[in-house]
Every structure is written in C-alpha cells, then in structure tokens.
Amino acid sequence: MSRSAAPSSTARSWRDIPQEIAPRAMSPVGRRRSTFRTVRTVATVVGVAAVAAGAFEVWRTWRDTPQLLATPVDSQPVRTISVQTDGVLDRSWVERVIELPEGVGLMELDLYALRARLMSSGQVASAVLTREFPDTLRVVLAERSPIVRLKAQLGGGEPREFLVARDGTVFIGEGYPTEMTESLPWLGGIRLVREGTGFLPLTGIDRVSDLLATALAHAPRQYATWRIISLNRLPTDGEIVVQSSEVGEIVFGTREDFYPQIARLDLILEQTAARPDQPLERVNLAVGPSQVPVSFANPRGLAAGEQSDARAQSLFTPFNRSAQKREL
Amino acid sequence: MSSKSRFIGAVEIGTSKVAVLIGEMVQGISVHLIGFGECQSHGVVKGTITDFKAASDAAHSALLAAEHSAGVKTDEVYLAQTGGHLEGFYNQASVSVSAADNMVSQLDIDTVCRLAKAKALPEGRMVVHHIRRPFQLDGRLVGSNPEHLVGQRLDVGYWTVHGNEGKIADNIHVVRGFNVRVGDLILSSLASGTMLTSPQDRQHGALVIDIGAGTTDFVLYRDGAPYMTGVVPVGGSHLTNDLALGLRVTEGQAEKLKLRHGRAMIATRDKSDKVWLNGDFAIGDRQFPRLAIETITSARVWEIFEVVKKKLGPAFAPERCAAGIVLTGGTAALPGMTEAASKVFGIQAHLGEMPGWVDEKLRDLGHSTVLGLLHYGLQTRAAQPQARRPRSKGFIKKLFAVGT
What we know:
The complex is a heterodimer of chains A (328) and B (404). Chain A is α+β, with helices and mostly antiparallel strands and 328 residues long. Chain A has two domains: 80-143, Ubiquitin-like (UB roll) (Roll); 146-327, no CATH class. Chain A contains ten helices and 15 strands. Chain A has a seven-stranded mixed beta sheet. In chain A, strands 1-3-2 form a three-stranded mixed beta sheet, covered by helices on one side. In chain A, helix 9 (258-272) packs across helix 10. Chain B has 404 residues and is an alpha+beta fold. Among the domains of chain B are: 1-75 and 354-404, 2-Layer Sandwich (Nucleotidyltransferase, domain 5), CATH 3.30.420; 87-161, Dna Ligase, domain 1, CATH 3.30.1490; 236-297, Actin, Chain A, domain 4 (Alpha-Beta Complex). Helix content of chain B is 33%, strand content 28%. In chain B, strands 3-2-1-6-12 form a five-stranded mixed beta sheet, with helices on both faces. In chain B, strands 7, 8, 9, 10 and 11 form a five-stranded antiparallel beta sheet that branches. The longest helix of chain B has 23 residues, at 290-312. Chain B is globular, with a radius of gyration of 23 Å. The relative contact order of chain B is 0.14. Classes of the chains: A alpha+beta (328), B alpha+beta (404). At the A-B interface, helix 1 of A face helix 1, strand 7, helix 2, strand 8 and helix 3 of B.
C-alpha cells in the first residue's frame, strides 16, 4: 500500500465499545460497589466542603474578632472546688494555695501550674486536678503521714517545727491537731540540707518509721514515753538511739528486726520496775539477742555523790525468746 | 502501599474456569501479585459467552474471591479475549522518507503506521489488537524505532486481530457488571506467549500453543515480535466429548478417563489392556480398553495440531522457529503432548515453564494466561507512554519484579 492509497474508513477498536453500564444491568455485587463508590464520592465532597467551610469560618473570625479564638470553649467561671484527700488538708487550704482569681473560667485554668503550687507543699504526695463541667474544679490529694518532728531554722526567721514523713520529706505540717503533732517524738542527730524553700529529703527515715511503727503496734506504752530519736550513729554504727522519759538512752540496732529488741526492752523495763531506786540510764539492745548491757543511774550501795563516777553496770543474760513473746 | 499504587485485576473467562489475579502496580513500572481467585466457569462455550447471567455470576465470584484474598478493591482489569470468532490479517504500508537528507522522522513513522493500520473491517467486526511487525528501511529490518536512520523507503506491517463486536462486548460487559473498568483487552495467546517465552526465544522464533478447554490459542513469534496469532475453537472439552461418544459414558466419566488414562500419543500395544472406570468395584463400574482411550484422545490432539499448522500456513517454517514449540494450557498436561506436537510440526516441542518468581500455587500451566495478562499489560503500559514520561534508563525489565 502506498501513501496515495488513503484508507476509506478507520477500523473500529474494542475501545469504541461504551463501558458505561446502567445499574440495572449490573450484578448485585456491581450495584453494591457502585453505591459504595457514589457514597464515598459524596462523603468526600461533603467532607472537603465542611473542611473548607470551617477553615473559612476560622479565617473570618480571625479577621473580624480574633479575641474569640483565645477562648474557643465557652466555659463558665469556677464556682466550686471539690477537694478529696486521704489526710487532713481541707478545701480552704487548697483555695489558699492555688489562689484562683475571682471569676476565672474553668477552661482558662492552667491545671499544670495549679498542680505545681499544690505539690510545692511537702505534705502533698500527689495531686490530680480535673475539670468537671460546667463550673467545678476537682482536686484529689494524697498526703504524706508524719512520723517524727524536728525544729529547724529556715532562712533568718525563728526556728519552727517541721514534720518528717517516712520517705524523708521534711515539711511544715498543715491542719494537724496539736495533740497529734505533740505526740510525735523529736528527731535529732541529722543534718538538714537546704533546697529551694525547703530541705532535701532525709535518709534513713524508713528505718525510724519501722521502729516507731513496731513500737506503736506492740508496745504503745513504751512508745508514749519516747521523746527524742537520734540518728547520729545510724550512718556509722547502724544504731538508732531513743531517749525516753523512763530510760536515758535506748540503743536499737538496725541489723536486727525491731520486734525482738522491743520485746527485750519491755522485759527489762518490767524487771527493773520493781526497783524504783535504780532508774535505768542506758539500755543497749544493739549488741544482740543474747546479751543486753544495761546501765543504772543510781547504783545500789553508793552515796549520791559517787553515783556519777561509778555507775553500776549489769548484764541481763540470757533471754528466753518465748518468754519475751509471752510478756509482750 | 504507596499512594501511587493501583490495583489491577487480570481476568480470564475461560470455558472451564474463571481465573482472576490481582496485582499491585507501583508507579506503573512494577507489579506485585497480591490476590488470586478462581471458580468454575458457566455460560461459556468455546471461549464465547452464551449465557450472560451464568458467566457474570462465575466471573464476579472469582473477582470477589480475588479481592477478598488481596484485601483491596480492583481499580481496573486486563481482560483476556479468545474465541473462535477471532481472526487476523496482515496489512503492510510503505512511505517514502520525506526529508531531503533521507533521514527518517517521527512524522514518517506515524504516517506509515497509520496507513498500515487503516484497513476497514466488515460490518460487526472490531479490532482487538494491532500487532506491529518490525520496521523495514529499504528492505532491511530495523529495531523498534527507525527514527534518524537514513533510507528512502520505510515499510511496516501490522497483524490485525479482529473479532465479532457483540461477542467482544459481551465479554467486556460481564466485567463491567462488576462495576470495574476494562483497562485493556488482551489476546489470550499473546498473554500466555509473553509469559512463557523469553525475548531470545521470540527473536529466534517460537510457536506457543495454549490448549484450553474450549479453544486452542496460538501465537507465532518471529524476529522478536508476534508474527501471527490464531484461535482454533477446539480444546480439551472436545477430547472429553469424543471419549463420551466413543465409549458411551457420561461427560463426567469421560473427563475422569481423560485425566487418568488419556494420552496425546498411543503408547499401548496390548489390545487386551483394560482400565476400570472408577476402580472401586461398585455397581456400574466397568472396564475400557486403554488402547481405545488413547486412540480417541490422540486422534483429537493430532487433529488440533494439524488445524493449527494449517492455519499457520506458509507463515510457519521449521527453520525459522528455532526455539521450538511451547505448549501450555490445562490440556497440555496430557501425557505425550510434546511428542505429538513434535511429530506434527517437525520441530522440538516442550511444555512451558513459568519464571522462577511465580508462586508455587500459580505454576500450573492453566494459569499462564492470567499471569501473562498482567505481564503483557505492564509491558504495554510501560512502552506506550514512554515519550511522555521523563527519560529513565532501561528499567522495564529490571523493575518488572513481580512477587507474591
């Protein structure tokens, strides 16, 4: 075929067959696919339109009244502060600490900042703040429990009383009844280190807490006489020294469980109670279960002037453990 | 799954089965096989749809199964086309090179291609494929693109495959009923031929014969391109039918006998050698001479090859078919098929072998067409828009990394 032989007509291709097909000619599966595709297309168009309309509305608001964007949620002012705690702090304390401005909206609150204020008190172990619409701020507190107290001078002010929790946190107790704080023994022989507006947590308080808890549970009468807990020899000798109203110095060892030591102490006190003329000066329970060195303040047979120079010493040996338990 | 991925389905609506393969085409240059579905075909006789609803149900079941296995929805499909209504003819055109310096321009190429393709078809016929043969410049073969070569006369020929408009439309409408677009209509023989032959085989010359259930498709390659294609409306189901008539059994029983004892070449010499129909000694079980079964099946196979050879005519020359005959399709698994083909065509024949990357469950020869649809479609897609895409460095082969 040469170039001059022009084609009379162009052959039709299979691509000329129309592929459009009416839904009635489709199978149920095809109709379902067609419907799904239509729905998807419509949903896409509607979605795009909604996004565009939203964007336009934001732009228009930004242009006309930008201050509205600063408070996107129309919340009401805080009317109620709901406080829940496992300790002694109350709503007035919370209000005093967080210092909410008058008429502040619920959505305007910076919960992180408010929580930081609450946590600045060592008495608060954890704080959870939640918004409860429309106008309530809910505060859930977990407080530290004090086990001993101490007196320290913070800055240039007068020395004041601090409480110490089991984890060593030193804090100013708020809301505790006076009789409760006065029943706590004093803590001595420690070195306080300043940190910010408070002190660094103390070490070794957990052992003190164990001792006090054991005494409170099994020998509350003895515990009530304890006045000062000294940790002076805890880092070096592993000993906790207790000064009580009955005994000048009771030494507890941290290498042995506190329960048998308190049991021995109870037995000694019971045996020496019959001799009021010989008050106990020192009981060392840290030596071990078989021997307890005891010092008397007023040894028998010595004149009053000689007592200070020649303090009699005796040794309680041995102890029957079953007897200890029975006594306790 | 990148945003540039498209999910292409390959659909073969055959006489015995409908097979669908789904591939994830990434950036139009590589495809990963991700889903496969297959079901028994209904409403299809000799590759032509005779019952639209039954064929649609079967095709849609296979499409659904493939989509379910792939977990995606198909964007478009490549559809296999076969059937006895398909015919082909060759038309050649030539132009004188227009430039004064005799350098071939793109305009010359476009003109000669347009002229070679512009031949009117009878009423009711539609072109399925225009398969271009290599260009010739002053009588010498040139590669794929003669642009900038110097010569006086440029020739090119097209093997045009055309078919009945109604039957092609039925095939397309079955898929459209699933509400998915037909992206390309690909001749079954071209699909399986592309899958089972290497470029070297095609360059040396090869004849691929795909013996399906209802039709036998063939394609003859020469000089690296399809030279001739054809469809014979005879296939494995005719073997079954012959057995059913010759042995007076049902089609189901005949199919069973064909699969168990059928051969493309007679191997039995003992006339008394008999085989059981079921082998379970139940009532109705009976014996048939093995020689009779082999005689019937081999006669039909022999006839199929003879018809193919006759259709090829002078186009088939054993000396120009150095790569031999490649047999594929479900019926090609019949024992003795390669020997029969060798005897008929006078050249060596072998069963097609799938490339190594094809998954084990798809290596059956009956899946060569559906696999080839994706392969051929990808090659065509990669070759067509080459002029519009940014130049890239010979990546088609390298990046045709099909994985399962």
